[in-house]
Specification:
The chain is of the alpha+beta class and about 475 residues long. The chain has 24 helices and eight strands. The protein starts with 19 loop residues before the first helix and ends with a helix.
Length: about 475
Amino acid sequence: MNSPALQTRVEHRQHQTLTPRLQHAVRLLQLSSLDFAQEVLDAMGKNPFLEMEEPNAESQAAASDGADGEGSATAPEATPADAASSAADADTTWERESWQTTGGSGSSANSTGDSDGVMEMVAADIDLRQHLHGQVNVMPLSDRDRALIGAVIESLDDDGYLRLPLDELAAMVELDPPVDECEINTALKLVQSLDPCGVGARSVSECLLLQLECIDDPVDRELARRIIGEQVDKLAQRDIPGLARLFDREPAHIEAVCERIRHLDPRPGWRFGSSHVHFVVPDVIVKKIRGQWSAQLNPAVVPKVRLNRVYAELFQQHRNSKHAELAAHLQEARWTVRNVEQRFSTILLVAEAILKRQRHFLEYGPLAMKPLGLREIADEVKLHESTVSRVTNNKYMATPSGVYELKYFFSRAMPTASGGACSATAIRGVIQDMIAGESPLDPLSDAEIARQLARQGLTVARRTVTKYRQMLKVPAVERRRKHV
């Protein structure tokens, strides 16, 4: 019998580890330019060796010449460092002009003794509750009624709905004698009579019913009332044939009334107050100059940061072991400046490589989009594929036909019957054109679209057509069908 033996095996493996600084650089690379600018701004607030770069007169003149001379060769040729030095600081310019207007010596505001600033002349946003209170304040109401109506208004959500039960609302109002059900219902009815129509509703159906007075025809108004009150599910499903059978009406009549209902506002409160609109700021701007497409960085997204040379030289002259923290700040400042330059030079390099391969898209639209993979761009710009993926994440390119994320230009190759390849973006463009040219009375099903694509040499499965149609936000065939 063999005795057990101990064996020692040593394995040598190579592990690739990222330093904390490199991990931080990778994280910054995949941020959007707005988030990256905020990171740089935070670093400037903590690091005494970083400062905001002020535009000089020569850079301002060069920027104005580039803006005045359309198609000039100086504007699109800027490198990341040049773009950072030549772009004017919009915030600083605004502050300077505002100071000259409102507080500078010899200004018109000072000469007239008017101390109001420019921003005080801008119309303020009025939210929904302020809008409703303004209407109630001009009504001849008793103090008790005004208190009840005010409680209802203050309980509304931002979209105009009242989601708090009336009995709970009545219990919250401290009046003597206590509020009864009739009083709180009367206050709610009065709020529902205010502008905008539909405010104070407790459900989507009630919100739509409150807006039916805008339908002039009494027959259509009554039919709309029955559809909303009795068959709101079929309305949401756009089941025109089912509604026509239930109400014994022609499908065309039902469809016309449903179309009127769909034009009502299910969120009336959103018309008021400040709207939080998220804008996309392009990182790269593409222009056609003298028949050639060229890309340039958007100077507005390049942080105007530089190393404070005076502080750096003073530190180097008086450097000793007691200043270890300042030495770390100086090293971090130099790394931040290099990171800004490297980040935007990489973005421009990748954008130019994409532009070289997808110039037909700019000329002819999505149908001319070529299949493109990350590896193809990575091999050309001599970067790792994961780096290209991070560069294209949350980065945008402004073209004459619109603003696109850099990832939009990448798509896998779809084989064709002729042995070639077609991009998925081009196929989506073909599908969109097919749907745009279909008959409203007989729209194309996904299976029929797949058959028509096959006749054009594009082999696409029906489920793939469904996925592409949903990506285009096109409803299904029955919801696109019109009835006569």
